[in-house]
Design goal:
Number of helices: 2
Structural class: mainly beta
Distance between the termini: 7 Å
Shape: elongated
CATH architecture of the largest domain: Sandwich
Strand content: 35-45%
Strand order of the largest sheet: 1-8-3
Number of strands: 8
Radius of gyration: 20 Å
């Protein structure tokens, strides 16, 4: 018979982070060859409604089994949306830093007198409910 449960993954306080993990322990019967699965459970937490669980760009999976102990659940933001790139001189400055950053010639927008901010991917914050099963 399979063993099941739920836990929460925590991306931290706003603005959060792009990935997180949680250890599930107390699984004395788990062995190295056990099959473990995890998925988002649309159940409200202190941070997010059940609907937000269903709509968020979040992927979870389980791995790192430790026989007689448990496993780890990993969560990642899968969004590909990035903050806009802004030249160091402001919006009206040269577009060279934007072009260079897009072409990965100068992804941090630094050096050669150019630079700016932005380009960082989106992050998640707070708690999400995760269900899991292993056998």
């Amino acid at each position: 018979m399979a063993t099941t449960g739920t836990t929460t993954i925590d991306f931290g306080a706003f603005p959060g982070q792009s990935d997180t993990s949680v250890a599930v322990t107390g699984q004395a019967a788990i062995v190295a060859g056990s099959l473990v699965e995890a998925w988002i459970r649309p159940e409200a937490t202190a941070s997010h409604s059940a609907d937000e669980h269903m709509l968020e760009t979040l992927k979870v999976f389980a791995g790192n089994i430790i026989a007689g102990t448990g496993f780890t659940i990993y969560g990642f933001n899968t969004s590909q949306i990035n903050e806009p790139l802004i030249p160091r001189g402001g919006i009206g400055a040269s577009n060279k830093v934007i072009t260079d950053s897009i072409l990965h010639k100068n992804p941090q927008g630094t050096g050669s007198g150019h630079g700016g901010g932005g380009g960082a991917g989106t992050r998640l914050y707070g708690l999400y409910t995760v269900a899991w099963v292993w056998n």
